[in-house]
Amino acid sequence: MSAVDLLDLDSSLTEEERQIRAVVRQLIDDRVRPHVAGWYEAGQVPARELAREFGKLGLLGMHLTGYGCAGSTAVAYGLACLELEAGDSGVRSLVSVQGSLAMYAIWRYGSEEQKQRWLPAMAAGEAIGCFGLTEPDHGSDPASMTTRARRDGDDWVLTGAKMWITNAPIADVAVIWARTDEGVRGFAVPMDTRGVTAREIGRKMSLRASVTGEISLDDVRLPADAQLPGAIGLKAPLSCLTEARHGIVWGALGAARDCLETTLSYATTRTQFGRPLAGFQLTQAKLADMAVEWNKGYLLALQLGRLADAGKLRPEQVSVGKLNNVREALAIARQCRTILGANGVSGDYPVMRHANNLESVLTYEGTSEIHQLVVGQKLTGVSAFT
Ligand SMILES: Cc1cc2nc3c(=O)[nH]c(=O)nc-3n(C[C@H](O)[C@H](O)[C@H](O)COP(=O)(O)OP(=O)(O)OC[C@H]3O[C@@H](n4cnc5c(N)ncnc54)[C@H](O)[C@@H]3O)c2cc1C
User: Fold this and answer.
1) Which CATH homologous superfamily contains domain 235-380?
2) Which of 175, 205, 206, 302 is the most exposed place for a label (fewest CB within 10 A)?
3) How many whole angstroms from 277 Cα to the centroid of ligand 1?
4) CATH number of 9-124
């Protein structure tokens, strides 16, 4: 049990949920924690290798059923995200994009043939997927996308560009969202198709242990069966984002917990003015406030997870969770950094890495402002998006 679980919320987990969490925690301790500072510094991560190991444990598409997927509960998947992100947000992003975005899109909207072709290999980590919605000029407003898919006989021809796409440079398949004469549609695009190029985005100051890229689609000719038949309109990619955002609600708690545990340990051993930092009232006030926020975030995640398992989770509820838990996790990471003093800016401690990562988590999968607008619309009945 973590010292920060003041409310003993772990006691509301089932034995199976606890076991899954323990397995993922051990994997992160063995395979990620010893190396992640180096990956982050180098801006390179052995993503394919990790994907195979995560696949062996059933972490990819973990909450989906059939096609080699584990079929776990939403809460168990959330706990796995929490442990993954306690290692690094980039590592959790690898799993989220693979399972909740790329695999989920194919699982929910794909043909039986598409599912058979991609899902078992993706669940095993043998094939990597990415999800291309954002464009260079259209992020928060995907309805304005300019990537176009036009019919040419039985084929489709795709033209456009997607930007900030996690896993793109290493992906085998991209789920690409494009405008057609009938509205937005999704396509499973093999990355080795002629006309598809992926360029890695460098100089990131955040999520450095995650591969991010830009995808160019230059008259990419695809057979008719590349289209995801069930994906009709923008609500299809938005439903995938709801899936992934649920994982982030949990994941952000993992980054925050790692910061808190590191800081508690530091504050009890580092001495100034003849006593441990933990003995100063100002330090205790910071620690208490952070632990209270963390426990509130855990309660929130548990409620959303239980709603998801009951099939009752609504998008605006996920917005409440993403808005609160990422915002609070980032505040916790920054506050923890102050307690570590100069060591807080060192890569020898995970705190500033988590804080930098959480800047991306705050922005992707809907920025905080967009989630405020979703919640505001629910409260008032008025859309303030445009
Ligand atoms: C590391 C990383 C990985 C990513 N991975 C993926 C991926 O795998 N797939 C994918 O499709 N995308 C991905 N993204 C893109 C991400 O989803 C977008 O960056 C995000 O949706 C915001 O879009 P934008 O960056 O274009 O910002 P903009 O939409 O230009 O927004 C800029 C600012 O304006 C605010 N704003 C915009 N509209 C409004 C409004 N109506 N009212 C008030 N404020 C507003 C925003 O909240 C933000 O603060 C990734 C991003 C990062 C950083």
Assistant:
1) Butyryl-CoA Dehydrogenase, subunit A, domain 3 (1.20.140.10)
2) 205
3) 39
4) 1.10.540.10
For residue 386, which atom of ligand 1 is closest to its CA? 41
Distance CA 54, CA 51 (A): 5
The domain limits of the chain are 9-124, 129-232, 235-380
Cα torsion 265, 271, 273, 278 to 10°: value is: 10
Half-sphere exposure of 286 (CA within 13 A, CB side): 21
Single pTM value for the model = 0.98
Is 139's C-beta closer than 6 angstroms to any atom of ligand 1?
yes
**Tokens of residue 159, six digits:** 């033209």
* The ligand 1 atom nearest the CA atom of 97: 8
Residue 244 CB–ligand 1 contact under 6 Å: no
Residuewise pLDDT in 10s, the chain (386 residues): 689 999 999 999 999 999 999 999 999 999 999 999 999 999 999 999 999 999 999 999 999 999 999 999 999 999 999 999 999 999 999 999 999 999 999 999 999 999 999 999 999 999 999 999 999 999 999 999 999 999 999 999 999 999 999 999 999 999 999 999 999 999 999 999 999 999 999 999 999 999 999 999 999 999 999 999 999 999 999 999 999 999 999 999 999 999 999 999 999 999 999 999 999 999 999 999 999 999 999 999 999 999 999 999 999 999 999 999 999 999 999 999 999 999 999 999 999 999 999 999 999 999 999 999 999 999 999 999 87
Closest-CA residue, ligand 1 atom 35, reads: 369
Helix (H) or strand (E) holding 56, with range, is helix 47-56
Same fold, 129-232 and 235-380: no
